[in-house]
Specification:
The protein contains 10 helices and 8 strands. The protein has a single domain (4-211), classed as TIM Barrel (Alpha-Beta Barrel), CATH 3.20.20.70. An 8-stranded parallel β-barrel has the order 1-2-3-4-5-6-7-8, surrounded by 6 helices. By secondary structure, it is of the alpha/beta class. Helix content is 40%, strand content 17%. Bound molecules: SN-glycerol-3-phosphate (G3P). Residues 8, 90, 138, 143-144, 171-174, 192-196 line the site of SN-glycerol-3-phosphate.
Length: 214
């Protein structure tokens, strides 16, 4: 299994609208053994799907079926737009365990991969019992900062790997190849990155710096 780099566009201005398409196209040009997965805003999924060959995950889905659900993200819609997976319970979009469970099941029904994010080991364990494709440990206090989870809190990654029944990803503050390699050494199967790429003036270079391509 190739290591994963999930690029979370969040709602950064630099990764909104046509700027999101530009980052996606640049990422698509990188030839690497690392699986690059894009996580744009839902409004950009369709266009990125038509213009790149990369896998696209939604940043969130709601545990709902078609019907009267104003303002929600319907799993079927993101599937039809071209997404192949979704994040669930990102620390910026927390869900109850029941909602995570329902959303995970609905995603599976539509053939979507799931990455359940968690702030702590207890939630990693509960999330892994729901049998997603991945769980992802992200200490919220390190998100968007300059210090990587791999150096600030390596133990949380090894503990997540120990308690989880499914492959573990990690994220928060990851910005270079040392962080990426350390994550893999600690047992993670890949990383989630946002600010180091989306806020960079040269996103392609920022991606290559993380995965170690010249
Ligand atoms: O989902 C990834 C994210 O929360 C990590 O953010 O900016 O620390 O790379 P960042």
């Amino acid at each position: 299994m190739n290591p994963k780099l999930i690029i979370n566009f969040k709602t950064y201005k630099q990764a909104t609208g046509q700027k999101a398409i530009k980052i996606a196209k640049k990422a698509d040009k990188i030839d690497s053994e690392v699986d690059i997965i894009l996580c744009p805003q839902p409004t950009n999924i369709k266009e990125i799907y038509t213009k790149t060959d990369l896998n696209i995950y939604s940043q969130h889905i709601d545990p709902i079926k078609p019907g009267s659900n104003t303002g929600h993200i319907l799993p079927l819609s993101i599937k039809k737009a071209g997404a192949t997976g979704t994040l669930l319970n990102h620390s910026e979009k927390n869900m109850t365990l029941k909602k995570i469970e329902n959303a995970n099941q609905l995603a599976k029904k539509h053939g979507l991969k799931t990455v359940i994010c968690a702030n702590n080991i207890k939630t990693i364990k509960a999330a892994s019992n729901l049998n997603p494709d991945y769980v992802a440990i992200e200490p919220p206090e390190l998100i968007g900062g300059d210090v990587s989870v791999t150096s600030a809190d390596p133990q949380i990654i090894t503990e997540a790997v120990e308690v989880s029944e499914v492959p573990v990803l990690c994220g928060a503050g990851v910005s270079n190849n040392e962080d990426f390699q350390k994550a893999l050494e600690l047992g993670a199967k890949g990383v989630l990155v946002a600010s180091a790429i989306t806020k960079s003036k040269k996103p392609k270079k920022a991606i290559k710096k993380i995965i170690g391509e010249n």
